Every structure is written in structure tokens, then in C-alpha cells.
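Predict structure. Chain length: 289.
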Amino acid sequence: MNRKLDALIDLLDDPDLTVFELVQNELLKETDKIIPALEKKWETSFDGYCQERIESIIQNIQFKETERLLQEWLVTDSDRRDLLTGFLTIDRFQYPDLNPLNIQTKIENIRKKIWLELNNSLTLLEKTTILNHFLFNINDFSINFKNIHSPQNCFLNQLLDTKKGNPVSMGIFYTIIARQLDLPAQFIDFPKNPLVAIVDSKLARKVHGTSAKSDVLFYINPSNKGSITSIKEIEYHLRTNNYQPIHHYTEPKSDIFFIKLLIETLGLSYHSVNFTDKKERIHKLLQLF
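Prediction complete.
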């Protein structure tokens, strides 16, 4: 920490509001590397007003870092853009001190147990059935229907700890695990309840015929213990309920769409529990898309 920053931090308890605003503007230009120094100032301060100022600056710096990481993820080439990284970036919104390695370790432990039951002789449908059994029967992952609007449902660390989520977070989690097991999983923006599709163009032609317009083999509903549904059943439901155009709800969406939907869901969750102070920051994240 250089002397200028030390001097700025020392001025945080200055009662002059003009001085504080100048200091705050300078500190907010810095990265999260200055947070330990700010925390030290907070610990040694006996001025409650000064501590509130420090807390506000720390929160703003942490949010700025979340913005930066999300922007970095969004501009990453699609073949290198990792869905897990995107999910963890949204976790930072509420848990800025989260250790990604702990989350990655938990996911890897789940993946390994499932992987041990798979082999190359199994079809994609058989592999999916095994994945469903481990996630929903053995590990008891499910939708938090008792408190469906809780913001906690949107965060991966909470989903792993409580084994509860909402349809969007569960869909992302399912897709992450499936891909780590080399299953070609893609997100489907099905009305009111996101689905996951297993996509393989060559197999789709063999199964559905050469005239098939879709590369989707079948659909999975992570909100209903991974229940598997055919294309015909999905299209019938959409036509019956007048959803148009049908291909919008049956064809895969990008991972970016996935994460944007998660942020929108988080915003609605905060609104439902009257956390209106989060509204502006959620809006800022959505503006990055």
C-alpha cells in the first residue's frame, strides 16, 4: 500500500463531507486489493459513522469487482467460456469473499462419484438416467418449493449446502455436472420452467430421421428429478398452450442467456422479499449483456 492510499484511508474519519466525498471517489478507483487496509481501519476505528463509510466503500469496491469479472466472462470466446465460472461470478454478488476452490471441490466430488458408474458402452439416455439417480435420489437435490422466492436459491454455494434451488439455478447446476461428464447438455428456455437438452446432431438424425430439423435427442427437467421428455411431448405442450414460435422454446440457448436469466431471477427474488437496495446493482449487471 503506497503512502497516498494510506493517507486517503486515514482521512475517512474526517467530519467534513466534502473531504470524505473526495476521498471516497479516489478509493473507488482502486481494486479489491485495498480491502484489507480498509478492514484494518474499520477495526481500529471507534467512530461508528466512519465504520459505516468504510463498509459502504468496501461493498462498492466488491461490486465493482463482480462487474469486472462478469464483463470478462461475457467477452471470453464461447469455446473457452465456462458456465461454472459465470455461476460463481453471480455468487460473488452476495458472497464476495467466497472461495471458488471450495465450490469446485464439492462439484468435483459429485462428478467423480457419478463418473465411476459410467462407461463408454452406455447410451446418452442411460448416462443421463444414472446422473439423475445420483443427483436427485442419492444426493436429494430438489427445488425449494417451500421458499421458492428466496434469493438464496440463486447462489451455487447455497444450492450445494442446502441441496435446494430454484428452476434456473438447478438447471445451471445440472448442466455444469452433465458437461463435466461429457454429456452434450444445453439450456432450453421452456416457459416458466427451464429445461436441459441433450444435443447431438448425428444421433438426432439416426433417432428422429434425416429430415429432423432439431439436433435435440431429448429433454430433461431438473425441476422434476430429471424427468426425461421427448420432442413430440414438448411440442404438443407448446401448441396446446399457444406458445409461439415453437422453436424459441425447444432449441438451445447460449450460456450467456442462462446467466442473464439467473440475474433476472435474482432481481425478482430480492424484490419479492423487499430487498430494494439491490435493485440498482442488479440493473447494472444486466446492462452488461
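Summary: DSSP finds 14 helices and seven strands in the chain.
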